[in-house]
């Protein structure tokens, strides 16, 4: 018997409908696994020294670029204001790869106010803090054309003047490690002290991160801080950083930048 085209449709459409129903029923019996966290690599202290991008930074970014993993680059204005064209071209190239350059203050210094050693964004005036933010924003724009949208303070040391100063810069919408006790309209990126790239500071520590992972693996967003300049002091440090990245890859985390995260959450 020869089937007419209309007969073929009459048989196949119900069959397809049944198959669709059957497949969705099977799926519902096996709910999708909980989503893996987004991870921001908060890398601090990029500046121009010895006429170079520091080898700690080039090694880390080359490694991440080979894996198509995005990170963030915290710059300090005063320490890169005399950078070479190659230095700025390197920052532009990282931006083009999807990494995010962010404002890590102007001096990264410890000023003395009324005889007391303070921090650039803790214990200094509103005006001082505002100028620091503005100078680094303006410098990067002038040298590279890049507009930063994220801030994170040196030493993560801030006070209420920081929130006031940040409020004057609407283009800075994201605040890395903003403390919960300071009122701000900026998007906060949380700090989990027990879960980090380094332990102690400057020393990548896979054992410490893996030990803390169990407890925090269901967080929606994890911000991991590190200092690539310190990771070439000893070859084992860079290897340990790579072990951490390999661990996170195995956990199928989703690497992201604050700017990308903001777009996602809109
Ligand atoms: Zn720093």
């Amino acid at each position: 018997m020869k089937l007419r085209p209309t007969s073929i449709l009459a048989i196949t459409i119900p069959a397809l409908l049944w198959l669709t129903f059957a497949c969705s029923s099977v799926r519902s019996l096996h709910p999708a696994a909980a989503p893996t966290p987004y991870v921001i690599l908060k890398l601090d202290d990029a500046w121009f020294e010895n006429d170079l991008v520091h080898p700690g930074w080039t090694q880390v970014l080359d490694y991440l670029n080979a894996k198509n993993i995005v990170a963030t680059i915290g710059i300090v204005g005063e320490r890169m204001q005399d950078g070479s064209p190659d230095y700025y071209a390197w920052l532009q190239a990282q931006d083009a790869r999807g990494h995010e350059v962010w404002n890590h203050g102007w001096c990264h210094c410890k000023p003395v106010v009324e005889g007391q050693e303070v921090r650039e964004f803790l214990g200094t005036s509103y005006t001082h803090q505002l100028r620091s933010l503005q100078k680094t924003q303006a410098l990067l724009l002038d040298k590279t054309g890049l507009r930063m949208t994220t801030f994170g303070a040196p030493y993560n040391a801030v006070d209420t003047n920081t929130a006031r100063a940040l409020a004057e810069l609407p283009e800075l919408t994201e605040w890395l490690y903003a403390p919960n006790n300071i009122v701000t309209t900026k998007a906060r990126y949380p700090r989990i002290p027990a879960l980090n790239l380094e332990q102690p500071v400057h020393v990548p520590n896979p054992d410490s991160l893996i030990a803390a992972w169990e407890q925090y693996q269901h967080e929606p967003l994890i911000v991991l801080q590190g200092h690539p300049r310190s990771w070439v002091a000893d070859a084992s440090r860079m290897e340990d950083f790579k072990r951490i990245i390999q661990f996170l890859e195995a956990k199928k985390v989703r690497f992201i930048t604050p700017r990308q995260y903001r777009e996602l959450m809109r």
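The chain is about 40% helix and 15% strand. Residues 16-31 have pLDDT under 50 and may be disordered.
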